[in-house]
Amino acid sequence: MHYSSPLLLSLLLLLLSVPAIFLLVTPRVLPPKTLPSIPDPDEADDLALFRRATISSSTALPLPLPRPHSPQKIAFLFLTNSDLSFAPLWERFFRGHRHSFNLYIHLDPNSKLNSSLLTSSFVGRFIPAKATQRGSPTLISAARRLLAAALLDDPSNAFFALVSQHCVPLRSFRYVYRALFFPDRGRRQRHKSFIEISDSDPDLLQRRYVARGDDMMLPEVPFEKFRIGSQFFVLTRKHAVAVVRDRRLWKKFKMPCLKARNDSCYPEEHYFPTLLSMQDRAGCTGYTLTRVNWTESVGGHPHLYGPEEVTRDLVKELRRSNSTYSYLFARKFAPTCLEPLMRIAETFIFQD
């Protein structure tokens, strides 16, 4: 048999062309690699919880402004994936105000809790939790789970403050309570949610917007509606209900990011500001009450304060804000900061 045979030459050319065709076609045929998504059972459990919270809140009567004999409360929502190192400091913060707050803790079930750090305020405050992962919608789900639990638990919860295990208070509880409920010397006015809502960096917004794919957020979230903000906030009850009731935007934000764009995947910093900006921008201040130092960020994490940095001057600096409100909380503090913070807690931090 000769290689000059037309049939054989055609066969050889076909065999040689197959790898080239495969290389050209495969990237378009195979779906792009994405990060892990939320398991279906977890999603179903959450949906049932959110429905109960929404129905319960829709039948609740409007509450008046706080009165000494029947105060509205602040629900403190601790979102943590590690130990509660600052529980003793928060215990000092809460002391004497047990009728004015509720406490809810979402602890990653994979974490090992040091029970010796728990105080009376923290015991028994854990809600059913699921695993979380940075750079994934699981952090959104955890925050929504906390909001839903607080909505169901007590109709007196009027503000919902999301904090982390690395957050510390910068003011006394009395100061925080008055700042939220009586922002204008006690005169009745519409209360707002304190959540950062920003569109000041178009390049950053664009990178974050396409983290799941170029057009994956459409049509529910057009680019001009997409916002960025701090993960930690203080929401009114109205907005807490709006968050757990949402299904439309969640369909987009629960989609996993592309692995190739993982460095732009921070859904917890986008979902809440985008949702509330689209639903009730006038009801939000546009800024957060939690101070974070991003000037020395590493790997997407803010500056981590160490014990040698904890001084009265640092607390004074962290309180300062460009808004009409001073900052009430701050992060990110290493667990070793507990001792120096406790030393100045009663004599300075809570003496305002």
From TrEMBL:
Keyword Thylakoid in record: no
GO cellular component entries: membrane
Highest taxon listed in the record's lineage: Eukaryota
UniProt feature coiled coil, ranges: none
Membrane topology: Single-pass type II membrane protein
Pfam families associated with the record: Branch
Subcellular location: Membrane
Listed GO MF terms: glycosyltransferase activity
Key word RNA-binding present: no
Keywords: Glycoprotein, Glycosyltransferase, Membrane, Signal, Transferase
Residues annotated as signal peptide: 1-20
Protein name: Core-2/I-branching beta-1,6-N-acetylglucosaminyltransferase family protein
Organism encoding this protein: Iris pallida
